[in-house]
Amino acid sequence: MSTKTTSLFPRELVREAFTQSFVKLAPRTMLRNPVMFTVEIGTLIMLLVTLYTAFSSDGSQGSFGYNLTVFLVLFVTLLFANFAEAIAEARGKAQAASLRKLRADTPARLKLADGSLKTIRSSELRKGDTFFCEAGDAIPTDGEIVQGLASIDESAITGESAPVIREAGGDRSSVTGGTRVLSDRITVKVTGEPGTSFLDRMIALVEGASRQKTPNEIALTILLAGFTLVFLIVCVTLKPFADYANTTITIASFISLFVCLIPTTIGGLLSAIGIAGMDRALQANVITKSGRAVETAGDVDVLLLDKTGTITIGNRKATAFHPAPGIDKSAFIKTCARVAGG
Amino acid sequence: MNTELLGVIATYGLTLLLAIPLGRYIARVYKGEKHWSDFFLPVERAIYRLSGVDATKEMTWKQHLKALLTINLVWFVYGFFALLFQDKLPLNPDGNAGQTPDLAFNTVISFVVNCNLQHYSGESGLTYFTQLFVVMYFQFVSAATGMAALATLFVGLRERTTQTLGNFWMFFTRSITRILIPLSLLVAFILVVRGTPMTFDGRSTVTTLEGAEQQITQGPAAGMIAIKQLGTNGGGFFGVNSAHPLENPDYLTNMVENISILLIPIALVFALGFYLKNRRLAWTVFGVMTTGFILFVAGSITAERNGNTEIAAMGIAQPMGSMEGKEIRLGADASAMWGISTTVTSNGSVNAMHDSMTPLSGTLQMLDMMVNSFYGGVGVGFLNYFIFIIIGVFIAGLMVGRTPEFLGRKVEAREVKIATIIALLHPFLILVATAIASYTNTHHGDAAWTVQPANWLNNPGPHGFSEMLYENTSSAANNGSGFEGLGDNNFFWNFVTGLVLILARYLPIIGPLAIVGLLAAKKVIPAGGGTLRTDTGTFGGLTFALILILAALSFFPALALGPLAEYFGMAH
User: Fold this and answer.
1) Residue A149: closest CA among A119, A182, A177, A125
2) Which of A51, A116, B400, B434 is most buried, taking the most CB atoms under 10 A from its CB?
């Protein structure tokens, strides 16, 4: 597999994210992020103040243009936060979709009742169908061998670098979608409905991964909510202070001060950061089950692996040849190849 | 002028020279290692036996808090009734009256919590009995309470995966017998030699130069002044505190007292290093605190030296700097230095009237108390700083992508939650109390109280606002100094500040101890190459920025309407 790079803002994602940034304005969604929720309330108040100044001759709340500007700035802030989150989510979904598409495109040779073969897409396989595979084929979905024996490269799923033998009958008869047949031929009966195979579950993980908050995210949300509360107090207490000083402070000023004080930048981008982290990992072909896993990965000092296949391609590969002095290099390589070929 | 500056530098230098060995000594006292000071052991054992406590049993953090809060409640009840009925108790040669219930409530709280906010004047508001057996007694025990809480934190940071954190009674008793009493004796001795009274005689009558007769209040002052400075208490024997010639007779006593103010808070930071065998951490913490302190002192000295611009605008030269409300024998520099020392350490004694200092000095003094963790009060100063370490570790950990940890213990949601609440409490108390006060003053100025809210303030405008803001900040920061000029001995102020005092003392002790109790119970992860180090300049810088930014964002709106508005309103 190669590392896939996508442009930062693909056109269709941007369109989707743009719609989402309005949909996400619903208070129920906003409530999950207390910092931005307070900004939303501020925006609503500013909308009312703007309307009030538009239809009233009372000048104590500043001019219409001033209030409108404050309102628009706040509104754009909200949209931007939502947009960042939506685009991060959309990118995660797009990755999952492309994985699924790749899977659906894997050809499967369906064995019909009369024994003839018909090539279909693997997503069309149903439980109970039988399909046929021979050396070099990818196994389209999970199943049980009903006839034959084959050596199968399962390194992509289990990490085992050496091929394993699977045969009909006994307890070594099951095969997994996504693995590859290396030799011989087998007939396999599909054991699961589409969408329940091992690969499908992995793809679901990629999609659903963003839904749970990580421990650090929870702690950070608490901290940010705390700061927001302090600054709310700062702004509210300013009212009696200003009364003492015989100064009037407009509602727009209160709300602007409040929004400037609270940690909007980090609060607005918090969920986007988490999703972006997993997205980056996915680009390097690392599938993270959850944000928590990404966090734990940051603490890793030493990595211990029990199976070399987990991090390799599952096959031996010579990357360089270093002949001893006095040995001809091409002869050396040929000898090596002969030995490796057994 | 340069002699004055030299005096300030010498004062700080001497403090530092004394603080390092004292820190080493304190660490050994709390570790319970064999030491020459063990000749106190029989005395301590007698105290334990007399009070019926077991000073060898290991306690959990909850048991620590229970012991601490219980003993504080006992003191509160005892002190309240002693002050209420002081006129009926012995040692009252001047025939002073008992305190009103609201004043007694405020006074006893402020002394039990180590704040020493004084809404009375020592000459007429207390008797020798209450000065000694309530005020001075509380000055010892309240300081020792803070120190014992800090010792508990030391244990929690040193021990690996433990539920118990030493014994509260042992820490508490040793703080008094081995640290506070010996140092107090030394300081009191110097003060007596320089002329501070230590007598049980009543007022003495003297004939002044112009031939008039004057009554001079005296009393057992020297002993109390020593502990009030050393224990960051600050409650003076006389009303005008250490500006009074009998409390602070000359420049030498001024130096000794100023050193006493800073000594134990700084020594405790070094004690942390010696106790944990992690001197780099202690120096990092010390560096952050000192940077803040020096910046504040430099700012205040500059402001005082420049003098009052209104006076300069009248064409009057001020070669000695702004001398309003200051003592000629001490001068502007030493007063500015003291003003910052007393506010950073939550001491609260004054040798000049803060009310009369230039607005910028007033701003810095308030900002000191709003930060409340550059040195801070004995014991509790580092507890406050610890909260910022936890928040700093958390933020820095997220920035480098590691699970946040401090000294090998993971900092998780629960710790962050507690730290957030405690960090939030300080601005909350100051701002809400001041808001209530200004609301009452503006909208209910004519309320039918003994002192009408409209008559609280000596000065109108921003300065009046500063008076209220300072009073609440001083209460919340456990400081106890006053901006004066505020009519504070009435039900409103006695009650409001009393409430602020209780909350601002006990929650910031409970919070850090709970955190350290949780941390101590966790597994220690050995430091690796990627571990975020907390004993480096970078982390120190981050903590410093965090403290200042949080204080600035929370308090600048209020400061802008008080001292800063006053500053910009003056002639320039």
Assistant:
1) A182
2) B434
Q: What is the second-level CATH architecture of the domain A108-199?
A: Distorted Sandwich (2.70)
Inform me whether the C-beta atom of residue B444 falls under 8 Å from chain A C-beta atoms: no
Q: Cβ contacts of residue B482 below 8 Å, gap of 6+?
A: B117, B118, B354, B355, B470, B471, B474, B488
Residue of A nearest to B466 (CA): A241
Which residues of chain B have a CB within 8 Å of the CB of A34?
none
Give the number of domains in chain B.
Answer: 1
- Report the gap between the CA of A240 and the closest CA in chain B (Å): 5
Is A306 designated active site? yes
Q: What is the pLDDT of residues A63-85, one digit of tens each?
A: 888 999 999 999 999 999 888 88
Nearest CA in chain A to B436: A240
Quickly list DSSP for A240-267. Answer: HHHHHTT----HHHHHHHHHHHS-HHHH
The complex's ipTM works out to 0.86
Please give the DSSP secondary-structure letter assigned to residue B454. G
Closest residue, chain B, to A292 (C-alpha): B403
In a domain, B237, yes or no: yes
Closest approach of chain B CAs to the CA of A310, in angstroms?
A: 24
- Helices vs. strands in chain A: H and E counts, helices first: 11, 8
Q: Which domain holds residue B273?
A: 2-203+215-569
User: Does residue B71 fall inside a structural domain?
Assistant: yes
Q: What pLDDT, on a 0 to 100 scale, did the predictor assign at position A203?
A: 72
pLDDT tens across A278-329, in order?
677 777 777 666 667 777 777 777 778 766 555 666 566 778 888 888 888 8
In this structure, is residue B550 part of a structural domain? yes
Question: Looking at the domain assignment, is residue B340 inside a domain?
Answer: yes
State whether residue A260 sits within 8 Å of chain B by CB. no
Over the stretch A208-235, which tens digit does the pLDDT of each residue have?
554 567 788 888 888 998 999 999 999 9
Q: How far apart are CA B4 and CA B333, in angstroms?
A: 6
pLDDT on residue B262:
95
